[in-house]
Write a structure and sequence with these properties.
The complex is a heterodimer of chains A (295) and B (324).
Chain A (H helix, E strand, L loop, with lengths): L2 E2 L2 E2 H32 L6 H19 L3 H22 L9 H23 L15 E3 L4 E3 H23 L1 H11 L1 H6 L4 H23 L9 H16 L4 H21 L7 H12 L10
Antiparallel strand pairs in A: 1-2, 3-4
Chain B lengths: L17 H20 L6 H24 L7 H16 L5 H23 L4 H21 L16 E2 L3 E2 L3 H23 L2 H11 L1 H6 L4 H27 L9 H14 L6 H15 L6 H15 L4 H11 L1
The chains are: A mainly alpha (295), B mainly alpha (324).
Chain lengths: 295, 324
Amino acid sequence: MFTIFGIPSAALFGQLLIGLINGSFYALLSLGLAVIFGMLNIINFAHGAQYMLGAVAAFLLLQWTGIGYWPALIIAPLIVGAFGIVIERTLLQWLYKLDHLYGLLLTFGVALIVEGIARNYLGSAGLPYVLPDSLRGGQNLGFMFLPNYRAWVIGVSLVICFGTWFAIERTRLGAYLRAATENPTLVRAFGINVPVMITLTYGFGVALAAFAGVMAAPIYNVSPQMGSELIIVVFAVVVIGGMGSILGAILTGFGLGVIEGLTKVFFPEASNTVIFVIMAIVLLVRPAGLFGRRA
Amino acid sequence: MDTTTSPVMTGSSAAPSMLRRNGETIGFVVMVAALIVAPFFTYPLFLMQAMCFALFACAFNLLIGYGGLLSFGHALYFGWASYLAAHAAKLWGFTPELAILTGTATAAFFGLLAGSLAIRRQGIYFAMITLALAQMMYFVALRMRFTGGEDGIQAVPRGRLFGVIDLNNEMTMYVVVFVIFIAGFLLIYRIIHSPFGEVLKAIRENEPRAVSLGYKTDRYKLIAFMLSATLAGVAGSTKAITMQIASLTDVNWPMSGEVVLMTLVGGLGTIFGPVVGAFVILFMQFKLSVVGEWVLVIQGLIFVTCVLLFRRGIVGEIAALFKR
């Protein structure tokens, strides 16, 4: 063991690790928000609630049917994604011609409904989700202890994030998507079914949130308010990064997670507020956001 | 995306017709009469609380309904004003009017800071920034010693107005809250119908054009934001003195959502909408207090229904009915 700036290395790297974990969730969620906003022009306030639903779905799958972590990692996002598609078809599709603000208000309403129902049936206390045996334990790296599950979360988040980036920026489907974001009418004229693409995009974004929720379940407890607490921070992350760039959203998410972790070590009183303070500074220095384009 | 069109608004901004003026006068007389009679029929405490929230919603509506700016963090001004008013009345021994002024000044100060940051971005970002800043100040309130954390500031003395009039009498307190509410309401009415208000509406409808006409739109938006925050502060401070408590509920994000809901239900950009909305939502919460967490679900359902079917809100729908 050694110390850095008077802080034991284990504590420092431990917080850095927690920062990276939080950062993975910021990145996954802000990525989903950016993808949805690009296609639907709606800021999905229900994103936090859908993240919570992912965790709840994994919890209930285990409780009711005994379906464990690994299948839940696929099934929960599918269920919640399908729920998202239903919401898009029944509610959101009527708003595309209206001001953006209505989308925010409507999805806020959806978030309240989902959180309210969850609170009624689950109570507001957290429910523990048991880790699968295959991911227990950890590695002693000499300067710190690395739990296997945390390493797994960071690794998978990175893969998913860059996979999404690759799919959007480097594949044909992604090209359609980007084109439809720029000019949906023209893309439609080329014979591409844009409304279906919009629906699937929303479903994908929601599934991404649910996936993050499943991964979060063993780390934080499963609780109805886990989403609303997170989504506001993710909004700040989105304001800092700007929604123009996928890669920007990923980098900002991880970066801010790390900064938050470091703040916990050096100035714990500010750890809750540091991201908001950074947002204020970014607004002063670069109003369009770090990776944003001036509207 | 272009931000030029703003269908948030439904009320026409044409020159006020006779019909409309008459409608507003009638509405005002009805409102004042109802508030004078009401305490003889129902709990004055409920009415006082409702008037505080009505003023809060009116202040919020000034920003969204006339400036087209959706603040999702108005709990910051309401809640922090109520903390400072409560603290001033309880620990510094301020008279109620000075305590309310202290709270209001706090809200104005935060309004200036948050407003100057938030107006740097438009539309959806504006909403996210205001929400994030409010959340930051929620955490600050949670941490600071003087707010009492989870307990809040309880047993705030109502004291004597100007050191003379005892406010512990329920009816006296009612008259004071009534006067504050009407004064705030008339001030907002005046602001909306002033040249300043007209410029604000112009910015809402088409900001680039307002800029091209030589208006410094940022300055107008900042002043509107500050006015709105300040009036929300008046509402929050009055609430703290009346209800004798300031707590985390007032400064947390669901409160910001609630004021949006009140205004949306009553009618965005209508003069009386926020008042009607505040009374409706508070009455609903009062009646539904037995169902516990379902209140959240019902609020959510109202949000969804309003956005999909009644974008004009109660007052907006009524006005549209008369226009036909």
